[in-house]
Amino acid sequence: MTTPEVRTRAVRLGPRSLAALCLVSAVGVAGFGWPLFADPTSQAVAHAQDAPWLFAGLLVMLVAVVTATISESGLGPKAVAMLGVLAATGAALRPIGAGTAGIEPMFFLMVLSGRVLGPGFGFVLGSVTMFSSALLTGGVGPWLPFQMLAMGWFTMGAGLLPGPDRLRGRGELALLAAYGFCAAFAYGTVMNLAGWPFMGALASNVAFDPHAGVPANLARFLAYCLATSLGWDLGRAVVTVALTLALGATLLKALRRATRRAAFETPVTFEPR
């Protein structure tokens, strides 16, 4: 007689958590994309040099709200412990390839973790991991909230991929590798958008022009990405795919086993002695 397989259930995302995620994502989209849509005569452009600090403080507060809300709707002590272990592992992996052609092994761990543990847990994990790695490497600055938000989206996206309960084996690894490849470029592009408007006159042909229209600025932005970050993004994407295909099956199995044993949705009780 065979024992039925126990399916791994991701940490559930409640209505309040979903609303908070939508709120912080909406503010994040505004924070990243305002240069393309702001009127050249608006105060946003006039105070462009202050914008990074304004959005930095706002995004940090909103990420904290999301973390607290998701904790209320399912992240008990065991899930918080899992979050801490994965965030610490990701933070330790990031410096391995720092400064070397985009070799960043932490991205494949975020993809696999988001896949197993779901979009809500994935968003918090990505944000916390990036914050922890910044403390570890000394990379704290006005860019950090943007990195936290972009990594939160990156990890959350893996939790939104189809077939979490049915797709297994090579098909799942191929799906995760394809997502990791595309999302690695998306992460780099989004982070470029965060810093591109503040180049000033350093590179006039590719810098943001507040008096130009959206098509002209999009062309400038594309040229900026090709000139500055294509190599880094390609390196990040290739490393993510290679590690996912090589280690993904083993790590997915380990994450699912740990999640089943933790039984996140089962409340922790203490028996009197």
Quick take:
The chain is an all-alpha fold.
Number of extended strands:
0
The largest β sheet comes out as: none
Order of helices and strands: HHHHHHHHHH
Query: Count the helices. How many?
Result: 10
> What are the low-pLDDT stretches, counting only 5+ consecutive residues below 50?
1-6
Helix content: 55-70%
Distance from first to last alpha carbon = 38 Å
Kindly provide the radius of gyration, computed on alpha-carbon positions and rounded to a whole number of angstroms. 20 Å
Mean pLDDT, to the nearest integer, reads: 76
By secondary-structure content and strand pairing, the structural class works out as: mainly alpha
How much β-strand is present in the residues?
Answer: under 5%
Shape: globular
What does this structure look like?
The protein is globular and about 55 Å long. The protein has 10 helices and no strands. It is mainly alpha-helical and 273 residues long.
Q: Keyphrases for this structure?
A:
273 residues; mainly alpha; globular; disordered N terminus
Indicate the topology:
Layout (H helix, E strand, L loop, with lengths): L14 H23 L5 H4 L4 H22 L4 H17 L12 H12 L1 H19 L6 H16 L10 H26 L18 H15 L1 H33 L11
Helix pairs in contact: 1-3, 3-6, 3-7, 4-5, 4-6, 5-6, 5-7, 5-8, 5-10, 6-7, 7-8, 8-10
